[in-house]
Amino acid sequence: MAYDIDMIKKVYSHMAERVNTAREVVGKPLTLSEKILYSHLWDGQATEAYKRGKDYVEFSPDRIACQDATAQMALLQFMQAGKKKVAVPTTVHCDHLIQAKMGAAIDLQSANKSSSEVFDFLESVSNKYGIGFWKPGAGIIHQVVLENYAFPGGMMIGTDSHTVNAGGLGMVAIGVGGADAVDVMAGMPWELKFPKLIGVKLTGKLSGWTAPKDVILKVAGILTVKGGTGAIIEYFGEGARSMSCTGKGTICNMGAEVGATTSTFGYDDSMERYLKATNREDVANAANEVREHLTGDDEVYANPEQYFDEVIEINLSELKPHLNGPFTPDLATPISEMGSKAKEHDWPINVDWGLIGSCTNSSYEDLTRAASIAKQAVDKKVKAKSDFGINPGSEQIRFTAERDGLLQIFEDLDATIFTNACGPCIGQWDRSDRKGEEKNTIVHSFNRNFSKRADGNPNTHAFVGSPEMVAAIAISGRLDFDPTRDKLMNEDGEEVMLDEPQGIELPTKGFAVEDAGYIAPKEDGSSVEVKVAEDSERLQLLTPFEPWDGKNLTGAKLLIKAHGKCTTDHISMAGPWLRYRGHLDNISNNCLIGAVNAFNMKTNFVKNQLTGEYDGVPAVQREYKKEGIPTVVVGDHNYGEGSSREHAAMEPRHLGVKVVLVKSFARIHETNLKKQGMLGLTFANENDYELIQEDDTFNFVDLEDFAPDKPLTIEIVHADGSKDTIKANHTYNAPQIEWYKHGSALNLIKKQNAA
Fold first, then answer.
1. Which H or E run contains 727?
2. One of 18, 96, 563, 654 is an active-site residue; which one?
3. Is the peptide bond before 630 cis (omega within 30 degrees of 0)?
4. Which residues contact 705 (CB under 8 A, 6 or more apart)?
5. Which long-range contacts (CB under 8 A, 24 or more apart) does 4-10 make?
6. Active-site residue 724, yes or no?
7. Strand 172-175 relative to strand 155-158: parallel, antiparallel, unpaired?
8. d(CA 101, CA 565)
9. Which of 93, 368, 551, 710 could bond to 134 as cystine, CB 3.0-4.6 Å?
10. Contact status, residue 558 vs residue 694, Cβ threshold 8 Å
């Protein structure tokens, strides 16, 4: 039986009424996304038609999921909210703090030793507040959620940007910062700007070497890393119905790389099959009773241009396999063109590693398709030229794959089977084959390939592909290998070709597992003690941020003017820094160390206006804080792209940064800044970015009149005494301005709970 089945049945019990009411209010047929959004309004029934991309709306999500790296800060914040138990079903998944190095058993043992303090904290705080706990080794959060918690028509938020993976089971699942999750845990509404809608019509059917991953690789090439910002991507058509549930999950998962709020598919037979295969026939039966409300209306899909803000059409029968990268997930290249493109750009041709897994591609079907290629290599006596690493998505996947002989096939190619965890995908990889920063190439089935992402080396060229394509390229050892036409030389000196991959959607013997890794919380956790040692370097109880004094901000110094791409990885790096995710002061020592200083094109090297000397960003900012001097960070387009990690907002806030002024924001990061009581502003005129000089001082002229839809005026004083006055836009509504006034959203929640 499914977890929280009563909650799911309750959602379905009022879905028909709420959808029908919303259809009347909106006055037209509804997309699936609209049905889910309108049926999860905080106030219940729809009373008005919301303007896409403009109106802020309060929602009531059904559940929350947190991964261990972000859960620490989220739960440290929740501990301040004054609640005895979470208000909605919530889970914590320990998947980020396990480093891939030697193999599953040794790596898991090492993680349990090195991060025992954090795991013990998360288990105890979960037990106290009624939160389900998935222990280290249980699996990657999004695969575990898909197998156990996702359900068609539901709404879920999670403290990880790839929460969107659950769209593969017909949810509206959205990545948020921990402060957003705390609101919902505390029984408060969750606010979101009503999304725009992008429809992707899929015709035809996938075949041969083309996989579901290639759909989103193609979409990423079309939309770019910011083309989906503020929008839900809804997939539909015969092509959508022809794909497996986990294939749909892959597509939704990587929708985060185009900035989409989330992605989703309508409920269909593949989802029903998946629910039943994962022991949730009760959910399937309940969903079948409201099936018509779990997909878009027929009129919508018949005439999508009338109902979506943008429509993309892809013929799956004509879609070719792709590799995307390096350094950005939207640089899409058909595999047939990779050879010439690599030569043109001087990308290293030899491939050192092929990595299969991550929350994007670690399902049973993914492993079978990759294993079908690996088995051919073994049978045809082709020795793999690259190293192999495999991360199964969950203990259930791993156990079943081992039972069915899939893991042995990879091991026959000398692959390393890593823990059921994120591993190299998030930089948790102790890569022993390279030292220093040598130029090299890896291929993987992950979702992100930013510079330094996997191994910390800025010269590692990482390319994203499907598991079967990664397997083929790793076996060949060459980036320019096209398995649809190229041959390989085997150990007998014979030329052989790899046959097309063969996959198994669901295990014919069913899924199996001995210990899935789940620990249920106590019904009454009031007696559970949560301990945080005062001298801990991993965990630190939080001190509330100071509220705004109501005055204009003056005399603020420029901390850094970031050049080009500045993702959350640049603002708050992962990798070895993951160990400090529960200790705000310690992790703040990585604040903006990856951002490129526009004045010298170096990282972690900025001018201290107090001394005239150059130093690391955190060191300079701590000097400003010590002297009580406010500071401003200036950035380019899509600032804060990438992970949902709120540390990228909390660290500057903790160190005394008051304002982030950029050309444009990634959605989650902008919200995180607001939640932490910072000013997140955009240039009214993008060209004003060029006016910012290294020794600038900022005076806010009319912050005292901070109000919705009213731009702010900033006087910029340059070192020579000259001045420029610019306008800065913002998207704060009245409640969000209250967050700013109180110093953070959490401060406001505490005040309301105490009232």
1. strand 723-729
2. 96
3. no
4. none
5. 4/63, 4/89, 4/149, 5/282, 5/283, 5/286, 7/62, 7/63, 7/89, 8/62, 8/151, 8/154, 8/283, 8/286, 9/286
6. no
7. parallel
8. 30
9. 93
10. yes
Q: What angle do CA 677, 680, 685 make, to 5 degrees?
A: 160
- The reported pLDDT for the residue numbered 645 is 82
Report phi then psi at 715, rounded to 5. Answer: -95, 125
Burial of 11 (0-12, 13-18, 19+ CB in 10 A): buried
Q: Which of 402, 298, 418 is nearest to 356 (CA)?
A: 418
CA 429 to each of CA 98, 168, 579: distance values in angstroms, whole numbers, following the listed order: 9, 28, 14
Q: Residue 199 and residue 659: Cα distance in Å, rounded? A: 36
Q: How is residue 43 written in tokens?
A: 């106030």
Predicted local confidence at residue 755, as pLDDT: 65
CB 166 within 8 A of CB 251: no
Is the alpha carbon torsion for 729, 735, 736, 739 positive or negative? Answer: positive
95 is catalytic: yes
In terms of Cα–Cα distance, which of 627, 674, 678 is closest to 652? Answer: 678
Q: Are 42 and 58 in contact (CB under 8 A)?
A: yes
Task: Please say whether the beta carbons of 89 and 3 come within 8 A.
Answer: yes
CA distance 348 to 463: 11
Give the active site residue among 18, 293, 322, 448: 448
Tell me whether residue 96 is one of the annotated catalytic residues: yes
pLDDT at 632: 98
What whole-number distance in Å separates Cα of residue 51 and Cα of residue 696?
Answer: 39
Sign of CA dihedral 452, 454, 459, 461: negative
Distance of CA 502 to the CA centre of its chain: 29
Q: Using alpha carbons only, how large is the chain's radius of gyration in Å?
A: 25
> CA 497, CA 487: separation in Å to the nearest integer?
5
CB 422 within 8 A of CB 140: yes
- pLDDT of res. 290: 98
Query: Residue 643 in contact with residue 617, Cβ under 8 Å?
Result: no
Strands (E), 179-246: 190-193, 196-203, 231-236
How many helices and strands, by DSSP H and E, does the chain display?
26, 30
Candidate list 362, 643, 644, 744, residue with the active-site label: 643
- Which residue among the candidates 62, 68, 95, 404 is catalytic per the annotation? 95
- ∠ Cα 238 276 234 (to 5°): 35
Is 448 among the residues known to form the active site? Answer: yes
- Report the C-alpha gap between 172 and 60 in whole angstroms: 12
Tokens standing for 331?
Answer: 């640089």
Evaluated on CA atoms 536, 119, 60, 678, the torsion sign reads positive
Coil, strand, or helix at residue 276? helix
**Is residue 592 within 8 Å of 654, Cβ to Cβ?**
no
Catalytic annotation, pick one of 18, 322, 645, 742: 645
Determine the pLDDT at residue 750: 85
Strands 679-683 and 723-729: antiparallel
SS3 682: strand
Residue whose C-alpha is closest to residue 585's, from 630, 527, 625: 625
177-201: string of b/e by CB count within 10 Å (b at 16+)?
A: bbbbbbbbbbebbbbbbbbbbbbbb
Selecting among 68, 160, 183, 480, the annotated active-site residue is: 160
Nearest to 466 by CA among 209, 185, 725: 209
Predicted local distance difference test score (pLDDT) of residue 296: 98
Q: Could you say which residues of the chain have pLDDT below 70?
A: 1, 755
Q: What is the pLDDT of residue 200?
A: 98
* Global confidence as pTM: 0.89
Query: Which CA distances in Å does 237 have to 254, 296, 572?
Result: 20, 11, 40
